[in-house]
Design a protein that fits this description.
alpha+beta; Glutaredoxin; four-stranded mixed beta sheet; 3 helices
Amino acid sequence: MAVAVTCFYQPGCMGCMEQSPINREVADVLHVSIEEIDAVKNPQYIKQYTLRVTPTIIIEKDGSVKERFEGVVHREQLEGAIKKYL
């Protein structure tokens, strides 16, 4: 199964605004999709993933959470984490 990468954000979050271009860069380099979901408009994910801060990035494979990052994740760290599951 493919790797699913999701970034939960909220409008006005400075860290989220910083994370978004990093996500795009990593997605382009690794040819993966990083879905960005507004946690405020989709509150069901707050409970499902026990979201405490934004941005939060979840890496899943085979329906199971493999890695989780809270706060801004630098490009090299995010790339390395995703590559482990490709």
